[in-house]
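Subject: Interface between my chains keeps coming out wrong

I've been trying for a while to get a sensible model of this assembly. When I model each chain on its own everything looks fine, but I need the whole thing in one frame so I can look at the contacts. Pasting all components below, labels as-is. Any help appreciated, I'm running out of ideas.
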Amino acid sequence: MDTSSQLRSGTVISASSLIGPATILVALGVIVPLLFLLRYSFNEYDPRLLMVEAFTPANYVDFFTDPYFLGAFFTTVRISVVCTLACILLGFPLAYVLARTQSRFKNLMIIAVVIPLFVGNAVRAAGWMTLLGSQGFLSVTLMDLGITSTMTEIMFSETAVVIGIIAVNLPYMVLTLQSVLESVNRNLEEAAFSLGAPPLTMFRRVLWPLSMPGIAAGTILTFILAMNAYATPVLLGGPEFRMLAPLVYGQFQMNNWPLAAAIAFVLMATTLLLTVVASLVTRQGFRN
Amino acid sequence: MARLQLDTLSKRYGDFYAAQDVSLDIADGEFLTLLGPSGCGKTTTLRMVAGFVEPTSGMIHIGEREVTELPPWRRNTGLVFQNYALFPHMSVAQNVGFGLEMRGVAKAQREPKILEALRLVRLEHLADRLPRQLSGGQQQRVALARALAFQPDVLLLDEPLSNLDAKLRQEVRLEIRNLQQRLGITTVMVTHDQEEALTMADRLVVMAEGRIQQVGTQRDLYERPATPFVAGFVGRSTFLRGRMKADVLVLESGLSVRCGRRLVGDAVLALRPERVTLTAEPPAGFDNVFIGEVEIVSYMGGLTDVHVRISPSDRIIAQIANGEGVRLPEVGNRVHVAWSSNAAIFAVPREKQPEAVH
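Reply #2:
Try treating it as a single job with all components included. I did that and got this:
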């Protein structure tokens, strides 16, 4: 009895010492500033005095009544949904091949999936510019081949941003799905086949429902990343293109801290809400 | 239910034959077991029948249908896996009903058939459970019910008992065998466990290195093994190697052993331990009598193994049935080892044959 309680208190001490440093860091580095920001978002802004102590919902009202901000809001949600769906569609087959391959180059293949993440945002954006710009590789090639007669400008558009975000987020989706698909025994697919299910039916009834935990985790991860994307929309979207994360930073730069804080909280709340909805939907799918 | 025919079925990967010229004719309602060590081609053969491995050459017929080119979902074979492979997100009833559902059987008609299949394995009270709520033995019985519910032409069992503990294995073994006989369904089972094979099958196929070594009943394989491999894999044997002179095998040690048949050239003799007689005094009426020294005596309850060295290079294992009044020899004793030339002796030409592990 004595030794077991000793053992248990020992475990408690070592467990708290393990999670302690990270907890303190998160508390000081994230939660405290967030609380400050939450308070700021109810302050008033004066062009001369900058932030004025107050308690008003004016910033939130401004955000949801101004078509400029609302436009950025819907663009952000739309792009995040599109990118996440594209990541599922493109990522699933890739993750399936990675999970099922017997190749001795499997580790190399996984590294190849992750390599885009090795490259910094600015470098990656420069790469997209040379590919997608009006004088870029794609445009020139299409003209040289006679497929198009005018220059194709994809750069500085929503399409460019969508492509850029998918390229960044896809590895996260693939790796998450791959680990879940690996836990789905190959015999389950074979069992379905032998019971008379053609490949598509097998996929719909066995593989898809069993990979739901991976779909859910990957969706949440890539959706959060897309909602909060900063560098890609700034570099590939151009000056006219608006998503929420760059907007927050823009307001901070203009010293309008109360509005910036309010937008930041709208962004956070929307991300959380849609994440919860997505996980509920996928859990529902898993049950059926 | 149907007859199953494999006609010179081969599967080659590069230069390596996973299965080579496998021909089998399995009668309607027969229980055939493929037996062999891992890598012998038994699983490849079963997977070719199920449709998961495409044969390099050869043909497969189920009944009158040629199925060689058909995908697995159009073969109508019931398959039971070693690891059960139950769908974890479906209830027991949904698992069992899956095959019927795939065949377009309406829900109302499915239910009585699901219950009937579950009744076969005495699990109808667990229909609403999820697989993870069942024990290993129950899961395997559900897998069996699932493979039978849609009335397949052939039942295929891929090491179905390997994941179960010893006691459960006995139970499920009997259950599968009873069920198979009651339903009269053509069944092919793969196993590496010879006890399992001996107790469950009508006929056995011993495979090694991709090839069929011998096909026969339990008794055929044990009493008349076609190759040294079979003699060593089915039951135990002591092997004596030498050169034939008429019907006498001259061992490398110089000892002469009388065999029941005439052969030419190198030969291997397989001697069943229980067919060897051990006596203190010279016995009468045996063709082969040797004097040797007892090296090992291992008592195993009902039986005792006695290892006797009859020459520096030859050691014979004799098995004694323990009983009242049976005196066991002791290590170091000098004893007579005897066997008759027709009792349990098989001289087989020594070719490049796979060696049994024993």
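Reply #3:
Confirming on my end. The mean pLDDT of chain B is 89.
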